[in-house]
């Protein structure tokens, strides 16, 4: 017997299912596991000839996620001249390898912040411009372009540190750029997740290795009205592998961050750790680096709010940038595997198994 109303209802249900299936297809392979095993590597500033080998190392280690900057200076080096060629290549290779991407939106071009041709202290791309108009367009271009490939975006990096926000860290100004980016991210891809830029240490205490001592920056972001404009809190609780610090101290730093979140009614948000790491020297050996790596993941993942941890970094650098980056990789400059590679591989096997 023919029932027009029932047929119409079935048609509507089928249409909704089809739309939802099509909409979710982009993210079918991007289900965030319970405990993310991540790595940092700036593949957009890596030689093309090295990228495939580094991706192979990531897969061998069992790493499921990578954090890469998609810098404004890289994709729009001159005003109005967009160049996503390198980013397209890197992102396509990573997704073809089934590696999830956390894209960091950061870096002001010289043409935007009026540093072109000027002598400035530190990196020129850390000086914010006077407004967020062009910044918003950069965010829109990046998030819209990679809507299918990238669901997680981080807004800046270590904005409470003078190395990354000049002339001095400014919570109110950063929050203005955060608000702008969040709105654009959500309008460009409503399904995306927006993370606070990773705060040095725990967003509370000052960076002990910096000459500029910035404290209570996370609270300052809340005070500036930033709470509705990030889905994830994010910190970089670096520690040394010695008896006074180590993984236990890292855990304490992280728990202190959660207390600030709770104080501001924000404890329901996940907490990501998008950088931890340790260099190698006479005191801090390669073996100690590996031991700290394993202990850190275990310590952090004993905290229910922590949902992602990214080691810094994949490969040693040729020279220091702001610290001992030249020895913080899990492979050396010749791609030889260090003890920390095997430590991360064991860690990945453990948590990837638990995620299943």
Structure notes:
- This protein is 40% helix and 13% strand.
- The chain has eleven helices and eight strands.
- It has an eight-stranded parallel β-barrel with strand order 1-2-3-4-5-6-7-8, surrounded by six helices.
- Strand 4, helix 7 and strand 5 (193-200) form a beta-alpha-beta unit.
Topology:
Layout: H1 4-25, E1 36-40, H2 48-61, E2 65-69, H3 72-75, H4 85-96, E3 100-105, H5 110-113, H6 133-145, E4 152-157, H7 171-188, E5 193-200, H8 217-223, E6 233-236, H9 246-263, E7 271-276, H10 286-300, E8 306-311, H11 339-355
Parallel strand pairs: 1-2, 1-8, 2-3, 3-4, 4-5, 5-6, 6-7, 7-8
Helix pairs in contact: 6-7, 7-8, 9-10, 10-11
């Amino acid at each position: 017997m023919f029932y027009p109303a029932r047929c119409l209802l079935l048609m509507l249900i089928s249409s909704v299912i089809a739309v939802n299936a099509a909409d979710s297809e982009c993210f079918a392979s991007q289900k965030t596991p319970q405990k993310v095993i991540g790595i940092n590597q700036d593949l957009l500033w890596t030689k093309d000839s090295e990228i495939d080998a580094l991706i192979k190392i990531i897969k061998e280690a069992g790493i499921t996620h990578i954090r890469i900057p998609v810098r404004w200076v890289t994709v729009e080096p001159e005003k109005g001249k967009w160049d996503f060629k390198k980013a397209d290549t890197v992102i396509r290779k990573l997704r073809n390898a089934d590696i999830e991407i956390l894209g960091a939106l950061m870096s002001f071009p010289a043409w935007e912040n009026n540093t072109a041709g000027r002598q400035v202290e530190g990196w020129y791309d850390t000086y914010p411009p006077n407004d967020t108009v062009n910044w918003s367009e950069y965010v829109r271009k990046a998030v819209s372009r990679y809507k299918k490939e990238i669901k997680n975006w981080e807004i800046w990096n270590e904005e409470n540190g003078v190395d990354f926000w000049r002339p001095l860290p400014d919570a109110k100004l950063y929050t203005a750029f955060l608000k702008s980016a969040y709105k654009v991210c959500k309008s460009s891809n409503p399904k995306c997740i927006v993370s606070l830029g990773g705060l040095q240490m725990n967003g509370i205490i000052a960076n002990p290795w910096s000459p500029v001592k910035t404290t209570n920056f996370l609270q300052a972001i809340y005070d500036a009205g930033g709470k509705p404009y990030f889905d994830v809190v994010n910190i970089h609780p670096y520690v040394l592998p010695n008896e006074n610090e180590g993984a236990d101290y890292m855990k304490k730093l992280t728990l202190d961050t959660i207390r600030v979140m709770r104080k501001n009614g924000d404890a329901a948000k996940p907490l990501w750790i998008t950088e931890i790491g340790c260099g190698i020297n006479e005191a801090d050996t390669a073996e100690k680096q590996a031991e700290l790596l394993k202990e850190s993941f275990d310590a952090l993942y004993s905290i229910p709010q922590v949902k992602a941890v990214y080691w810094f970094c994949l490969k040693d650098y040729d020279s220091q940038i702001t610290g001992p980056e030249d020895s913080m990789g899990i492979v050396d400059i010749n791609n030889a595997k260090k003890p920390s590679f095997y430590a991360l591989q064991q860690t990945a096997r453990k948590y990837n198994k638990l995620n299943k």
